[in-house]
Amino acid sequence: MTNPPASSAGTAPFELPRNRVPGLAPLFAAGFTTAFGAHSIAAGIGAESRDLGINLLTFGVLLAAYDIAEVILKPVFGSLSDRIGAKPVIIGGLLAFAAVSLLGICAATPAMLSLVRLGQGAAASAFSPAASAAVARLAGPAAAGRHFGKYGSWKGLGYVLGPLLGAGLITAGGLPALFMALTAISCMAALWTFLSMPELPVLPRARYTVIDLARQTAQRGFLLPTMALAGATGALGVAVGFLPLLGASLHLSLFGSMAVVALLALSSTIIQPWVGRLRDAGHVSTRTGLGVGLALIAVAIGGLALVPITATLYLSAVVLGAGIGITTPLGFAHLATTTPAERMGRTMGAAEMGREIGDAGGPLLVGGIAAAASLAAGLGTLAVALAGMAVLCVALLRRQPRP
């Protein structure tokens, strides 16, 4: 994406004071909702698979249904938010998520659960990119890093609390209790958004063809940050699945294995707002930051492949979380400050689609190579790919002016 004039990339004609930006808190809640919903249900279905009579193939379909819906629909709803405004898309998506989750209370068969997961993914496809676009417009280019850091931190909390709280709810009342909690959370987030988020005016947009869209998404200013976001998300997907597996192979307790993932999420949650503030102050550039973040992720995963011991497992979780925490806010802030406000939703939808591809592709890459060779080979291949992404970002991403 080419660098637009400041008036088009920021919040103008909707100006808000830079020191306090009202209406962002419910957007953070929306980010938490999609992450919590995706991971809690995935873990819950896995825990209940035996009682539900689910085989491995059906389990894979249930997990994939959420991501498939997001990959297909996120760019569509992102563009819709540009046309009708972000607020109605966010509220509508959250209410749809609540309605589908309510149906999940009565879902007792794999087919019904698949439909519920697909519906939840479709609903999240609406409010997730619209919320990202709204954060970008409300914060403006001067504060994009700090606020995307906070947004990423809340999503990170959803990723780690989803399986943990989900397990507690399922223990207390089975899958219906979890679906009931998701219904309540999404309803509260929708009400909060309705009451607290200001209306963002729909801005005039030029007509764009499919060829224009393809040309814009192929530009390095869009492609490289999106590639970095996909790589970081893919590494997170691998970590959530394979770090506990490595912990079990090292004879750690269930608590010890889960603590590795919690440590990763805590590291990422703490560092994201800090990195965002550094970016906003001009102390770190997108090019350098993405290179460092991806390199840290590559080193952490490579260390697990080469030295799979308990100490490396915990150290790698901290470093991996730091790398994800550096890459995520910088990637989104770069996209926010180099995209005209009138097409912010479409850009964020396309970037979120890239993240979903990474989320699915990372575990598939590692799992496929692990099945053919070894887990070390799978992790090593991912580490090499991430190191290559780091080099590409440093070599090809242009310097951006200070926000």
Give a structural overview.
- The protein is mainly alpha-helical and 403 residues long.
- The protein folds into 2 domains: 22-198, Growth Hormone, Chain: A (Up-down Bundle), CATH 1.20.1250.20; 215-403, MFS general substrate transporter like domains (Growth Hormone, Chain: A), CATH 1.20.1250.20.
- It is built from 13 helices and no strands.
- The chain has helices spanning 6-9, 25-52, 56-84, 86-104, 110-139, 144-196, 210-217, 220-249, 254-280, 286-306, 310-337, 344-372, 375-396.
- Helix 2 packs antiparallel against helix 3, helix 8 runs antiparallel to helix 11 and helix 10 (286-306) packs antiparallel against helix 13.
- The longest helix is centred in the middle third of the chain and has 53 residues, at 144-196.
- The protein is globular.
- Mean pLDDT is 83; it is low at 1-19.
Radius of gyration: 20 Å
Structural class: mainly alpha
Major beta sheet, specifics?
none
Measured between the Cα atoms of the first and last residue, the distance is 16 Å
The CATH architecture of the largest domain would be: Up-down Bundle
Contiguous helical run count: 13
Work out the number of β strands: 0
CATH homologous superfamily annotation of the largest domain: MFS general substrate transporter like domains
- What value does the average pLDDT take? 83
List segments where confidence is low: pLDDT < 50 over at least 5 consecutive residues. Answer: 1-19
CATH class of the largest domain: Mainly Alpha
Q: What is the ordering of alpha helices and beta strands?
A: HHHHHHHHHHHHH
Shape: globular
CATH topology of the largest domain: Growth Hormone, Chain: A
Helix content: over 70%
**Strand residue percentage:** under 5%
**How many domains?**
2
